[in-house]
Amino acid sequence: MENMQYAEELIREFLVFRGFTNTLQAFEMELGTDIGKSFQVDKILDLIFSVYIPKFHAEKLVGLLSFFKQCFSSSTEIALIATLLKLEVSILRYYVVYALQSGRKDKVVEFFGMNGNDLLQRSTEWTPWFAIPYLKNPSLDPQFRIYFSKEWHEALCLSARNFFSEIFNGTRIPALLKISSEKKTVNCLKKDAEQLNQKLSQLQTLLEEKEAQLCQMRMKTSSAASVMDTRLLKSKNSMSSNGLRKEDLHLTSIQQDCSPATPNLGGIKLDPEQAYGGQFETISGSIISESAHDSMSLSTLYVEGGVSAGNTQVLQEDSCDENGRDMPGEAFPEVKVNFQETFLGHTSSISRCRFSASGNNIASASIDGTVRIWTYEPSTPASRNATIYCGAEIMSLDWDLKSDRLLLIGTADGGIKAWNVDAKRVVCDLNTGEAFPRNGSSYIDSLGFASLTVWNMKTWKAMTVLPLGEDPPAITSLCFNHNGKILAASATDGMIHMFDMSAGLQITGWPAHDSAISSILFGTDETSIFSLGLDGKVFEWSLQNPGQVLWSRDCQRFFDPKASRHCRHEMALDAHGRRLLVTSSSVKAPIYQVRGPLEGMKTLAHNAAITTVDWHPTLPIFLTGSADHSVRVSSIP
């Protein structure tokens, strides 16, 4: 949302600079009617099939298609270019067919006169088409008959819709929208460079101090040894002068521990070999406390060489359980961290933490019913920071996908609250406890029976109930696609259900796990969906062939069913769909590489189990919430 606003400001600036006032007025008018704030494929299709072709604007049609080809000029988009070229040929042929059907052979002749040479250079398949304006009944000709059929026209429109929807809603973002993110990335890199330079200077100073201390210790040790030798010599001479023979003299060997005390660096006791070997790993840490109206505090941690100063412990390569014991299994390498910040504003275990739509704000919740809204970036205003007391354990937490203004909170007593972060108040407080009772001691048992109700977020009234059949098992997780038209739901029986929100009907479903499903989410290109079961298995399912597994991992070693009766494991996918972060009963969480050459990595350690995770919507930054009451923001390369 922030990237969109920044791009709009750039367009306004350019139009004012060039004096295109009429264009500026038209731009402002269309912005006023824009609701979706995203790519609208219907307007592109209307421009092609309802304006350019019916009004015989051949030159504009060819120019528009050429513009789309310029958008995919990189060598990595060869497949997209090939598909677009085929689509372009079909659209231009439909222009010719439409002109003939409208009795405008002159427009066909004009079209070939303007673009004939270019078309022949691309492909010889256009050669027969130059004769079409001179045929008596081209719609009956076997070579052209298919292009005059209604079915071919409908298939062309559907192909164009699918292509443009896939490109601009999924794989490609306009260059203007990337400027804001790239600007933030550059600023973050500059800040990181400054902080690293400062830390390097501090470490050099510290190293010089330690070397000076070491030199003094060695000088003292050498001096002490010389004094001791002198005393022994005097003692021997004295005994000889008293009549004792040299062979009767038995001297006690005095063992001197001349090694200096092990230095203490930043509160961490180092091995002497590490301290004096000439090359050792260094750490530095700083604690930043901010006393605002909601009493928040951040602990900033920078990590180098695998040693952390936050918990004053050296992190080992093997995973540990929540009591610090090693867990069996493969040893994932520890993730390299650019920077890490720890939020210490909660007093109980973290149940949920989520980035806002822009990634500027973070909402975190704990099982004591407290929700906190905070920021990790010092340059981001703290005006939205707040503490919300809900009176019951927080079971779900999500931001409005279109803006950072609205935060939705679900509580264990069946309550739904909507918090306006600008007004800093609850704008809706629903109670569904009577409609959806919860029973049982465990998390799954307490879910009760299944019901999916769709609510209107303007009127805050129930609109419809999605069909689930008779006596359906409880729903455990929900996930919308990017435009909210498709809903995925998982259940305690291991099934995944897909719903068409426009029709309010289930469109497909398949058995995904032998156990209850804990979490589901769409892939970034929305051609697949991920599911995480209570059995500790992760699957990526194809949405083009429902039931087909594209990728899987077994993370059962990170699951402990006895860790907490409220525990619901979840997962998060990064902005590029390449790294999958999963919660863990251990103090470290796995980061799997999706369909990649490497197995995975693991996060830096908390002091207890990792109960919730999330990824930044655009940057390689992730959140981990823990039973140790802390939430960490980690930036990785």
Structural commentary:
The chain is of the alpha+beta class and 637 residues long. Helix content is 30%, strand content 25%. It is built from nine helices and 32 strands. The strands form nine sheets. The chain has a six-stranded antiparallel beta sheet, covered by helices on one side. The chain has a four-stranded antiparallel beta sheet with strand order 8-9-10-11, with no helix packed on it. Strand 28 (590-593) and strand 29 (600-602) form a beta hairpin. The longest helix has 67 residues, at 175-241. It is globular, with a radius of gyration of 34 Å. Mean pLDDT is 78; it is low at 240-329.
- C-alpha Rg, in Å? 34 Å
Mean pLDDT value? 78
Task: Give the strand tally.
Answer: 32
Report the biggest beta sheet as strand number plus sense, adding barrel if it closes. Answer: 6 strands, antiparallel
- Percent range for β-strand residues: 25-35%
> Order of strands across the widest beta sheet?
3-4-7-32-31-30
The number of distinct helices, counting runs of at least 4 residues, comes to 9
What is the CA–CA distance across the termini? 24 Å
Instruction: Assign a percent range to the helix content.
Output: 25-40%
Structural class: alpha+beta
Silhouette: globular
Poorly predicted sequence stretches spanning 5 or more consecutive residues: 240-329
Quick tags:
637 residues; alpha+beta; six-stranded antiparallel sheet; four-stranded antiparallel sheet; 9 helices; 30% helix; globular
Kindly summarize this structure in a few lines:
The chain is of the alpha+beta class and 637 residues long.
